[in-house]
Amino acid sequence: MDLNDYKYYNNRELSWLDFNFRVLEEAYDAANPLLERVKFLSITSSNLEEFFMIRVAGLEEQLQAGFGGMDISGLTPRDQLMKISQKTHEMVEMQYKCLESELLPSLGKENIKVLKVNEIDEEKKEFLDNYFQTTVFPVVTPMAVDQSRPFPILPGSGINLGVELEDEKGERLFAFIPLPTIFPRFINIPCTDGTCLFLTEDLLKMHSDLFFSGYKVIEISEFRITRDGDLSIDEDDARDLLIEIESSLKERKTGFPVKLEISKNMGKNLRDFLVNALSLRSDNIYEISNLLDLSSLMEIANLEGYEHLKFEYYSPQPSPSFYGKEDIFKVIREKDVLLHRPYESFEHVIDFLRQAAEDPQVLAIKQTLYRVGKTSPIIDYLIKAAENGKQVTVVVEVKARFDEENNIQWAKELEKAGCHVVYGLVGLKVHAKLLLIVRREESGIRRYVHMSTGNYNYITAKLYEDIDFFTCKESYAQDVSALFNILTGYSKPPTWKKLGVAPTSLRETFLRWIDNEIDVVKKGGKGKIIIKVNSLLDVSIIKALYKASMAGVKVNLIVRGICALKVGIKGVSEGITVRSIVGRYLEHSRIYYFENNGLPKLFISSADLMPRNLDRRVESLIPIEQEDLKQRLIDVLNLYLKDNFKARELQPNGEYKRPTGKKSKLFIVQEELMKEAKKKFRKFIKKQEVDKFNFPKLK
């Protein structure tokens, strides 16, 4: 049996599109609150935009270069682009069917109305005219196209208005009006009942004559260009990586076009002019029946005053391990601690860093930062630590895609405060989530470590599901210290005591534990593997899982997004199940379970099972060895395998379907984890014998 055969693997890009279809299902699902459905539809659009900017752009480059090689599923770049176009056109049709047939009518019933020009009365028109004259008109810049002014390089992802004009001689001309991005897309008009919204592009259309006085406007219609967004950085020749990335960021706005969205009603002259100027193939053109750029629907999803149309508010619960304890270091000295966010609060991670910044016994802090966000208490406390005289070293990954500008800004702020800043490594992205605190104590120097599956991002910590791990065990601390020495200086990788580290040993570690399960079965034991990741693409790992299934090992995979592995192949993958869960929180943690003949091995990791994670990133695999924490992770995995509503199971034909079988009761894992976190904390509070007035106030 040749496991290199193309028939055993799904295509990466088509698998990702299948994931985005699962997100779209949430927009259709009437069981979700209305504004959450709007939010899911918005997410499908922003997901698709990024997919075209990076993945489709890469395939287009391969096609232009004449590359005809095949991917692991046997498809050439041309084959993939053809199938992507077919599937994306189907997705776009479903997106707008959802918007027009379900969401807009439902919003109208809740008195949230997106008004058209013919629905504006005199009072509303007066408001809009005033808003246009005082706010919008001074900002907008029309752009003519003629012999002296060639077709402008319109920025990608924004909305533009294409205008066909006629001069006094009857000659046809073309011009463009880019929509200003500094204003909301939806203008909130005062109205007596509910919320009345009006699109900025419709406002510009209403006043188009003011931009082109002396010319007759024949047609004005919106369009949107998606451009190549992958940065081309020559890291080996870059004298200063920071300057090189800052320079490359400008190219993102002017990359070659990969997709054109136009209004369905756009006239032939304007359409032909655009298509010819952009040199796009017909399968990269999408005719849109309603408002372009559905990602802007997030403005509606975030409207205030409509909490009844959103998920019931959930406040991440304090951890019983940390709650009410003034000395976090003492807690970690007593035992390792695990947090499961957003069910438990990320505030404990921030408190850990805050205490380190303020504690006179702390000598040094070292941290990796991948995606931090635009506002960050993490940065504030790192700066405070430096100001308090501590040695602060921060590895800021300035190549984190679409977060480059934020990270460059934070890197400069940290440097200004006196922190030692490293901008990642040449040829590798630093994706491991690590925080090391060095403290002077009576017994000598002790190191405290925080490791995580998720970013140090205060905002996404409330939206993404992740696992945090705290320890001060010397074996972990030695490995993390050694890893920082590699990242910041010249140091060869050691023999790791606890961690698995990419790109040196992570793939081999995974393969070794999979092989161990096969050996257990061969010796008459029971083999079992449970893996929860975002993506599964690495061929060597998939082959190993196929071999495990062929040997009789039971394999349960929880893969949120891309999955190149196929299930149900006779004699190959009959013992493998794959499920994907999409819910109110983005599933983001990576958990690895190996039965190990009754002595389970549990790991958490920053790494997915993709070649980029295993070969081109610095990642960490963290063994969880404390028995109560191991059992907690096992319980969490079992809950994910129990979900019978939000879960979708991969079928042998490549489709994803809801689990079949009798459902005496709906079981939604994310809701169950919220309930459990609340129950656990309430139970803890009831057991306290100390004066409750000494405890922090509950939210």
From TrEMBL:
Keyword match Kinase: yes
Residues annotated as binding Mg(2+): 371, 401
Keywords: ATP-binding, Kinase, Magnesium, Metal-binding, Nucleotide-binding, Phosphoprotein, Transferase
Any one GO MF annotation of this record: metal ion binding
PTM summary: An intermediate of this reaction is the autophosphorylated ppk in which a phosphate is covalently linked to a histidine residue through a N-P bond.
Annotated catalysed reactions: [phosphate](n) + ATP = [phosphate](n+1) + ADP
Domain annotation Polyphosphate kinase middle: ranges: 124-300
Cofactor(s) for this UniProt protein: Mg(2+)
Domain annotation Polyphosphate kinase N-terminal: ranges: 9-114
A Gene Ontology cellular-component term: polyphosphate kinase complex
Binding site for ATP: 47, 464, 560, 588
A Pfam cross-reference name: PP_kinase_N
Domain Polyphosphate kinase C-terminal: 327-492, 499-663
Record has Kinase as a keyword: yes
GO biological process, one term: polyphosphate biosynthetic process
EC number: 2.7.4.1
Active-site residues per Swiss-Prot or TrEMBL entry: 431
Function in brief: Catalyzes the reversible transfer of the terminal phosphate of ATP to form a long-chain polyphosphate (polyP).
Family per similarity comment: Belongs to the polyphosphate kinase 1 (PPK1) family.
Name of the protein in question: Polyphosphate kinase
Gene: ppk
